[in-house]
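Feature request, filed as a ticket because there's no other form

It would be nice if the structure record came with a short human-readable summary line next to the tokens. Right now we just get the raw output. Example of a typical job, pasted below so the devs can see what we mean:
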Amino acid sequence: MLAAVGLLWAGLMALNGRIPHGFGNLGSLFQTLLPWTGIAVPVLLGLAAVRRSRLAAVAALVPAVVWAVLFGGTLTDKSTGGGDLTVVSHNVDEGNPDPAGTARALAAVDAHVLALEELPTDSVEVYERALAGAYPHHAVRGGVGLWSRYPLKDVAAVPIMPWTRAVRATADTPRGPVALYVAHLASVRVHPAAGFTTERRNEAARVLAAALRSEPLPRIVLMGDFNGTSRDTALAPVFSALRSAQQEAGDGFGFTWPAAFPAVRIDDVRVKGITPRRSWTLPATGSDHLPVAASLKL
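Raw output as currently delivered:
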């Protein structure tokens, strides 16, 4: 039985992209937690030792091999130098008790562009005052905003939801125009009866993907809180069109949430027509998310 469980678990890991998003959206939930599936290996090995079963021990190594194939490259440092555009994205948390401190921490990174999500209306002025000196150009629409060292034009909300959770702008950089997108996809919840509720998030992702497909500029930077990971195939409409800076130029998983004990990476920087050189997470602020940063080559 232990051997069968080990082989079944390895199969689920290897074929995670084919787990259906049917009842309870179990596919999305499994894919979100995929990096943690390796925990099953020491558990199975321990049980095999208790039962003194060589067959179970050998079978427990199969998910270990699958995990190594899936994530072995993630654990290597892929960062390089030579970036000429540094961006930071941060869900600042509407319940953040210290928005001014968060703004100062972000400004200290000395990035060219800041993308902020979950901006509470009563704290927008706090961020504007704290960031005005370093970022002369900014645009806020609803709960998302962009702060830039370079001029912003063609600023427009992207209607991914009934209320504004995404915005698009063109940044006039010294190396030419770049389309900047900041997005905050709908939150997901886990309910005992309904399972992993992702329908609203998935619909927002489809609308955002359509906007990205119609983008006329060849260079795109998408920053935000996607409430889902790169492995979640339900978000493929967005993620398949752009490359993850963390996957191409990061070191490790770069988990961002929850800030107290990061377990998943739901915040990311993704690009098209641009080369990621480095991707990393920043120290915790007053938010329940960690900020993410990326150095890009235009």
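Something like this underneath would help us a lot:
The CA atoms of residues 206 and 237 lie 6 Å apart.
The chain has nine helices and 14 strands.
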